[in-house]
Design goal:
By secondary structure, this protein is an all-beta fold. It has 2 domains: about 260 residues, no CATH class; about 80 residues, Immunoglobulin-like. About 0% of the residues lie in helices and about 40% in strands. The chain has 1 helix and 21 strands. The strands form 4 sheets. Strands 4, 5, 6, 7, 11, 12, 13 and 14 form an 8-stranded antiparallel beta sheet that branches. Strands 1-2-3-10-9-8 form a 6-stranded antiparallel beta sheet, with no helix packed on it.
C-alpha cells in the first residue's frame, strides 16, 4: 500500500532541542505528564458510562505534542485476542472519507488481518487515517488504515510488547508503547490506574504545522472492527450500550464525537469544534448599513435553528427554525434593522451548538 506517513520527513527529527520535551513513551500516563502547554497530555475526555465489554475498555484518552511528534494516549486495557483500540485522524491537507458517511471496510494490503477490515461506522469528522492496537495470536500489534484512497486499505505495521517497551515503526515515523493491566476497573486482578497505549506520529509525516487543526476520535472495537463497544471518547451524554455493527455517530449518538487539537496551541473547546465542523461563519463582521451572510454546511439534513440574540440572551431575530437541508447554506441577516452593538448568532442542531459574535455598527 502507499503509506500514509511521508518517510522523507524523517530528516526533521533533529529539531526537538529548542522545544519542550514530550511525554515519555512507556505505556503509562503519569500525573506529571498531564497538564497544559506543549509537552503535556491534555484530556480528550473520560469514559464513565457502563461498559459493554466486561472489564475491558477505555478510562480516558489524551493528546500531546512536542517539536516533532503528536501523541495520543489511551488509559485502558484491551482483552488479549478479543478487541482493539482505534484512533481516527482528520488531518489538514488530506482528503479522506466524508463526515457522516459510513467508512468502507479497509482490506489488508499485506494479507494480515486487521481491526479495520470490518469497520463501517459513520464518524462525525472526515476520516483520513486510523491507527489500532490489538493482540493477534497472543502478540500485541499496531495497525494502520489509510482512508484517503478510493478503496481504503489497512496493514499491520508490526508487533510490540505489553510491558512498556517502545516499538518503532516506519523508520521512526511512528512509535508506540503499551502496558497490560488485567482490567480497567477494580473488579479483581491488577486494576488499571495509569496503564494503556501511548502512540506517537511524526508531525512532519502528516505534513502539519503550527496552527493546523487535527480532529481526533478514540474508540474500542472488536478484533475485526465489525462490532463497536460502549467505549468511545468523547463519550455520549446518554449511555447507549454496545454500538454494534456500523453505527452512525451523526444520527444515533448524542454529543460531539471528536475533539480538535490545534498544533502549537492545544485543544479547542467543544463549541468551537462544532463551529469548525459546520463551517459556520458570519460576514461581513463588523457589519454597517448592509445585510450580513450567515453561512454553514451540513452533511445531512437535520432539525435545527439559527437565531440571533443580544448579549443578554434576548432573541432579536430567527433566521431558520425547522429542518435544515443538507449542503452549503446561506442565510441573510438584515443587520440594518438592528441597533448598533454586539450580538450572538447561534446555530443549534440537537445538542450541538455553534456561535459567532457579530458587531453591528
Amino acid at each position: 500500500m502507499k503509506r500514509f506517513f511521508t518517510l522523507g520527513a524523517l530528516g526533521l527529527l533533529s529539531a526537538s532541542a529548542a522545544f519542550a520535551q514530550g511525554p515519555t513513551l512507556d505505556g503509562r500516563i503519569l500525573a506529571s505528564e498531564i497538564g497544559t502547554g506543549v509537552g503535556k497530555y491534555q484530556s480528550l475526555g473520560q469514559f464513565t458510562n457502563p461498559r459493554g465489554f466486561g472489564h475491558w475498555g477505555i478510562k480516558e484518552a489524551f493528546v500531546a505534542e512536542d517539536a516533532n511528534y503528536l501523541y495520543v494516549a489511551i488509559n485502558g486495557t484491551v482483552e488479549p485476542n478479543g478487541n482493539s483500540f482505534q484512533i481516527f485522524f482528520d488531518v489538514p491537507g488530506f482528503t479522506g472519507k466524508p463526515r457522516c458517511e459510513a467508512l468502507p471496510p479497509a482490506p489488508s494490503a499485506s494479507g494480515d488481518a486487521t481491526s479495520f477490515m470490518s469497520m463501517t461506522a459513520a464518524l462525525e469528522m472526515e476520516t483520513d487515517a486510523g491507527v489500532a492496537f490489538r493482540y493477534n495470536g497472543g502478540v500485541p500489534q499496531l495497525e494502520l488504515a489509510d482512508y484517503r484512497q478510493p478503496t481504503p486499505v489497512s496493514q499491520v505495521l508490526g508487533t510490540m510488547t505489553d510491558d512498556g517497551a517502545v516499538a518503532i515503526f516506519l523508520g521512526g515515523a511512528a512509535k508506540a508503547a503499551y502496558v497490560k493491566a488485567d482490567s480497567v476497573s477494580l473488579l479483581g486482578g491488577t486494576a488499571n490506574t495509569n496503564q494503556g497505549l501511548e502512540f506517537a506520529v511524526l508531525k512532519a509525516a502528516y505534513q502539519i504545522a503550527n496552527g493546523n487543526r487535527v480532529n481526533l476520535f478514540v474508540l474500542m472495537n472488536n478484533g475485526d472492527g465489525g462490532y463497536l463497544s460502549t467505549d468511545f471518547v468523547p463519550q455520549s451524554v446518554t449511555p447507549s450500550g454496545n454500538l454494534g455493527t456500523g453505527p452512525d455517530f451523526c444520527l444515533d449518538v448524542d454529543g460531539t464525537q471528536f475533539r480538535t487539537y490545534v498544533i502549537g496551541q492545544g485543544l479547542l473547546g467543544l463549541k468551537k469544534a462544532d463551529a469548525a465542523t459546520f463551517s459556520f461563519t458570519v460576514s461581513p463582521n463588523p457589519v454597517a448599513g448592509q445585510d450580513a451572510s450567515v453561512n454553514f454546511s451540513l452533511a445531512k439534513a437535520a432539525a435545527g435553528s439559527v437565531i440571533v440574540t443580544d448579549l443578554l440572551g434576548r432573541q432579536v431575530a430567527v433566521l431558520a427554525n425547522g429542518t435544515l437541508p443538507a449542503g452549503d447554506q446561506r442565510l441573510t441577516l438584515k443587520a440594518a434593522s438592528l441597533a448598533a452593538g454586539q450580538y450572538i448568532v447561534k446555530l443549534q442542531l440537537g445538542d450541538k451548538v455553534a456561535t459567532r459574535k457579530l458587531a453591528v455598527q
